[in-house]
């Protein structure tokens, strides 16, 4: 099984995650999920793989989250998934799938635990140094 990342190139966390994967010697399948959103079935599979409820995958910043009043606790999981289908920007990223597991990699260094040969040292775009395993 290869590595897959649901990626947004305009997101620093997503870029850092992708770079950590590549720096670890991997060549992931990159899905630009805003251009090629997952199907409803695939999104449900991803949520199950990550063991997350839909609400935990919702992105707030830079999305129509507030105007759609998605903070309403009476909204069902199906309604939240419907919103993500209409507005893929609501899907938080990056989502990474590897043979070792699947995870929403926020912060980006969470990806290192999913890799066979994780890079030992990495400097993020903002200059923050990441050591793996953490010291």
UniProtKB/TrEMBL annotation:
<keyword id="KW-0560">Oxidoreductase</keyword>
<dbReference type="InterPro" id="IPR036249">
    <property type="entry name" value="Thioredoxin-like_sf"/>
</dbReference>
<dbReference type="InterPro" id="IPR006660">
    <property type="entry name" value="Arsenate_reductase-like"/>
</dbReference>
<keyword id="KW-0059">Arsenical resistance</keyword>
<comment type="similarity">
    <text>Belongs to the ArsC family.</text>
</comment>
<protein>
    <recommendedName>
        <fullName>Arsenate reductase</fullName>
        <ecNumber>1.20.4.1</ecNumber>
    </recommendedName>
</protein>
<dbReference type="Pfam" id="PF03960">
    <property type="entry name" value="ArsC"/>
</dbReference>
<dbReference type="InterPro" id="IPR006659">
    <property type="entry name" value="Arsenate_reductase"/>
</dbReference>
């Amino acid at each position: 099984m290869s590595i897959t990342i649901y990626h947004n190139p305009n997101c620093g966390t997503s870029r850092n995650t992708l770079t950590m994967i590549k720096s670890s010697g991997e060549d992931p399948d990159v899905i630009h999920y805003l251009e090629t959103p997952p199907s409803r079935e695939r999104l449900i599979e991803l949520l199950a793989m990550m063991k997350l409820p839909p609400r935990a995958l919702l992105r707030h910043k830079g999305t129509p989250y507030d105007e759609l009043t998605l903070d309403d606790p009476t909204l069902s999981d199906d309604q939240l998934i419907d919103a993500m289908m209409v507005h893929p920007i609501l899907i938080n990223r990056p989502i990474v799938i590897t043979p070792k597991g699947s995870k929403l990699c926020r912060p980006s260094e969470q990806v290192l635990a999913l890799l066979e040969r994780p890079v030992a040292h990495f400097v993020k775009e903002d200059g923050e140094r990441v050591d793996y395993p953490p010291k």
